[in-house]
Amino acid sequence: MCGICFCLHTQLIPLSIDYKPLNARGPDFQTQHGPISLTSNLYVTFAVSVLALRGYKQQQQPFIDEDGNILLFNGEIYEGTLQISADDNDGVVLSQHLKQCSTDIDICNLISALEGCFAFIYFQKKTNSLYYGRDRLGRRSLLYSTETDPQSNIKMILSSVQLNNLSYSELDSNILHKLTVIEADHTYRIDFIPYVNHSIDRIIHAPPDILLNELESNSEFQNASKTFLNQLQNAVQRRVINIPSLCRQCKQFADSILRPLNGCQHAKLAILFSGGIDSTVLASLVDRVLPINEPIDLLNVAFFSAVSAPPADRQTGNICIILSQQPGRDQKTALIEKNCRRSP
After folding, report:
1. On the chain, which terminus has fewer CB atoms closer than 10 Å, C or N?
2. For the whole model, what pTM was predicted?
3. At CB < 8 A and 24+ separation, what contacts does 267-271 make?
4. What is the CATH number of the domain that holds 188?
């Protein structure tokens, strides 16, 4: 996932911010943009680090359109009102749609309709306003810290991670936040705009009252099962269909193209595999989607407190070990057991 950061400050001097925690989230590209003058003594500076997970070419951030609007985006958009193909970059498409928004309601409706896991920071140049938020389930972090000391250069920070050992709070994930600059007295205010509620398809009737062994011949149950399986298959496919064809190590020796025709033979996808029904179903669905020659790593993680006495069935897991071959896939595809010891 990417790292995004916005800083509101009062002096046109380099900020004393250590961006190392932010850059660790995006090893593919890091940059700072700004400072941008909002008033004679209020400035904004953006910082972003990019981790490229999908698409054919690595996209740099921030996204800046022809009007000077700036978007920092961390996440993935799967469905909703935005039609995003496998070849599109989520941030590019979102930036194009945000440019067409002219009111707070327009922006709120657009963000409310997104389906996916994301956090974003959007600067609208013509109004000197900043919009920011994250998805309703809060699957992408976005922290804020405000400084009340009048002598401090930094007045506010929004960031994916904690920076400079300041005190941070997590943003409410049910609200679109708007920061507006008040030029008359060189201050700002923050408004809260609740996300718009969208209807969710629900099962409006109770399941059939029949015995378990009768379900296979029950047409209502079979139709519901097929619908659920198709929805789950589509969700898995959307998340893995456009992953890079180069692993992290091989990408270091290539250019910004993430999916060259001749990719490497190393695994680019891993599943946390407990052996239970959930992880087994996900592994099976991924196996249907990816090409047969594309490796899939299954990672089994165990936690234990006594370093000298790991669980009996995990004693071989101190390093990555090939445990079994997966029929039909490349020899390098195997169940990999990698145990992690929880720090005391």
Report:
1. C
2. 0.71
3. 267/295, 267/296, 267/297, 267/332, 267/333, 268/243, 268/244, 268/294, 268/295, 269/240, 269/243, 269/294, 269/295, 269/296, 269/297, 270/296, 270/297, 270/298, 270/299, 270/336, 271/296, 271/297, 271/298, 271/299
4. 3.60.20.10
